[in-house]
Write a structure and sequence with these properties.
The structure holds 2 protein chains of 2 kinds.
Chain A: H1 3-14, H2 16-52, E1 56-59, H3 64-73, E2 82-83, H4 84-93, E3 96-107, E4 110-115, H5 118-122, E5 127-130, E6 138-141, H6 143-149, E7 156-158, E8 173-181, E9 195-198, H7 199-205, E10 209-210, H8 217-223, E11 224-227, E12 230-233, E13 241-242, E14 252-253, E15 261-262, E16 264-269, H9 272-284, E17 289-291, H10 293-336, H11 338-347, H12 351-387
Parallel strand pairs in A: 4-9, 6-8, 8-13
Antiparallel strand pairs in A: 1-16, 1-17, 2-15, 3-4, 3-16, 5-8, 6-9, 7-8, 10-14, 11-12
Helix pairs in contact in A: 1-12, 2-10, 2-12, 3-10
Chain B: E1 14-22, E2 30-38, E3 43-47, H1 54-62, E4 69-74, E5 77-78, H2 84-94, E6 95-98, H3 110-114, H4 116-122, H5 126-138, H6 154-166, E7 172-176, H7 184-200, E8 204-208, E9 220-223, H8 229-233
Parallel strand pairs in B: 3-8, 3-9, 6-7, 7-8
Antiparallel strand pairs in B: 1-2, 1-4, 4-5
Helix pairs in contact in B: 6-7
The complex binds adenosine-5'-diphosphate and magnesium ion.
Magnesium ion (MG) is lined by residues 54-55, 176 of chain B.
Chain lengths: 391, 234
Amino acid sequence: MSGPLLLALRHLQHRRGTSLLLVACLALTGVLPIAVQLLVGAFSTRLRARALATPLVVGAPGSRFDLVLNTLYFRGRVPRPLPMRELDALIGSGLGTPIPILARDTAQGLPLVGTTPDYFAFRGLRFAAGGMPLAVGECAVGAEAAARLQLTVGSRVISDPGSLYAIEAGYPLRMRVVGVLAPAGSVSSPDDLAVFASLQTVWIAEGLGHGHAPPAEQASTAVLRADGENVVLDSSVFIYQEITEQNAASFHFHEDPAELPLTGVIVMPRDTQSATILKGRYRVADDAQMLVPADVVDEITGFVLRLKTFFDANSALVAVATAALLGLVIALSIRVRQRELQTLERLGVSRGAVARSIAWEYGIVCGLGALAALALGLALSRAVAVWWTWI
Amino acid sequence: MGADPAAAGTPARLAIDGLRFRYPGPDGFELALDELRATAGETLVCIGPSGSGKTTLLHLLAGILAPAAGRVRIDGDDLTALGPAARRRFRLQRIGLVFQEFELLEHLTVRENVLLPYLMGLGRDAAAADRAGELAAATGIGHLLRRRPSRISQGERQRVAICRALCTAPALVLADEPTGNLDPRSAGQVLDLLLEQATARGATVVTVTHDHAVLGRFDRVLDLAQPAAAGALR
Ligand SMILES: Nc1ncnc2c1ncn2[C@@H]1O[C@H](COP(=O)(O)OP(=O)(O)O)[C@@H](O)[C@H]1O
Ligand SMILES: [Mg+2]
C-alpha cells in the first residue's frame, strides 16, 4: 500500500463519523436517479419486447392504450367488449391467425385469461408440468402464479367473486389446474403471473354460462356454521361451483354465441400484404379497431421518457449541487487540516504526495458513495420491479 | 568550499555565507548572518528574545524560506540554489526537524509517525524501519509504537518527534524550542536524548531555546540579540 493511500485510510478511519456521513449523503443523492434509470430502462425494454413480438391487436373502439395494455399485459383498464363475431370474421378472412383474449377477471387475485391453445404456441410458452387447459373447468397457471399460490397439477384455483363482469354469477368457479408453465424468460413476463383457461371456462366464471346444478355439496356445508340459534355464513370460506364430468353437460350459454365477449384479439397476419389489407379494412370499420402494439407502446414509453427528461434535469441539478457541496466540504476540511498539511510541507513532503493522499481520501469517499448508491439503486429497482412484476 | 580556508581539510557540515532575508512589507523583519560554519556532530544553540528571528533562521537553514542573498550549504550542497520542490526533497532526505508543538499526525500510529518521511516520499526502506525501531527503543517509546499520539504523554510525543527527525539519518537536525512545552524534568531528558541520539549518528544540531539553563549542553551558542554574535561565533 502506498503511503498517501495509508494516510488517506487512516484519516478516514480517524474521522469515521464524518466519512460515513459523506458516503451516506452521496449514496442517498445517487440512489433515486440510478433506480429510476434502471427501472425506466427495464420498463421500456420489457414493454417493447412484448409489443414487438405481438404484430397486430384487434379490439372494440376506445382507448388504444387500454386495449394494448389489456391484450398484451392483462393490466390496466378493461376495454369495451368485442363480440365473438369479430373473431369469426377474422378467421373467415383467411388473412392471418387470430388468438382471442378475454382478460377482465381475476382468480385468487391474479389475472384470469381466457384464450385458445394457439396462445401458448404463439408466446412460446412451455409447460413445466401437465398441459394445456382444453376442457371446460380446467386452467393452466404461470410459473410465478404457481409459486405464489403454491399450485401444482391437480390443485384448484377459484375465480374471484364480485368481478364487475360476473353479471349473473351466483358463485365463483373452482377450476382444476392441469398445467404449470415454465418461466417465460429470464425476466418476469405477464404470462408468469396469469391463470389461463378456455374462453368457455371464463364465460362460465363470469356467469354468462351456467349449469342447473347446485353448488358442490361439500362446499355449501363447509361454510355453514351454527352460532347459537343462527346459522351464519363463514365469510372466510367461498361458496363455489365446480364443473365436473357429471355436471359438465348441463352448462350452457343463453346468449347468442356470436355476441359472447372478448377483450381483444391478437392477430398474426399471414404476410405483409395480408397485414396491409387487414389494417385497411379496420381503418374504415367503426365497430372495431386494429392497432400495431409496438406503435402504441412507443407512445407510452415516449410519455415516460419525456417525464424522465424532467427527472434527469432535476438529477443533474442535484448532482451539480452535491458536487458544489462536496467541494465546499473538501475545501473546509483542508482548511481544518491546515496545520497537518503545514507539518507535512515543513518536513519536506512533496505537494504531489499530499495531493495524492487527499485525492485518495475523497476518491474513496466518492467511490464508496457511488458504490452504495449503485447497490441501493439496484436493490430499489429490483424491489419495485418485483412489485411491478408484470412489466 | 575551496574559498573557505578555515575548512580546507574537513568540509563544513553546515556553511552559511552572507545570508540576507527580509519578510515582505514596508517594515518587514530583516535577518542578516554573514558567516557560520559547523562541523559534523557539532551542537549549536540559538538564543535571543522573542521576535529576534530564531525561527526565521531555522526556516532559512531548512530551505522552508529562501534568502534574498547569500548561501546555505549542507555537506557542500547549496540549498539556496535549489527550487522549491528540490528544497523540499532535500529537506525530507537530509534535514530532521523537531517542533515546539511536536506536530505529530493524530490519525497515524506512533510508528507511522516516525516513518512518515518514508511513507510520504522516501519509499519503503527496511533499514529505515530498523532504525526507527532502534531509535524508539533508545528514546524509551518502543512499547508505544502502536498507539495514537493522543494516548501518550507530552514528553513521549516529543520523543516520537525526535525519532521522526532522526529516522532518515539526516546531516542536520533543526529543533525549534523542542522543550518549550515540557515540564522542566521532562525537558532536560528530552533535550539530552535529542543531542545524544543526533550526535551519535553524526548529525549537526541547531536548537533554538529560551531556557538559558541548558546552554551548557551545547558546543556553541549563537545569540541573535547581539548583532556581532554571528561573527564572534565562527
Ligand atoms: N511570516 C511572517 N511574515 C512576516 N513577518 C514575520 C513572519 N514570521 C515572523 N515574522 C516576524 O519576524 C520576526 C522574527 O520572527 P521569528 O523568527 O518567529 O522570531 P523568534 O522565533 O525569534 O521569536 C518577528 O518580528 C515576526 O513578527
Ligand atoms: Mg520562534
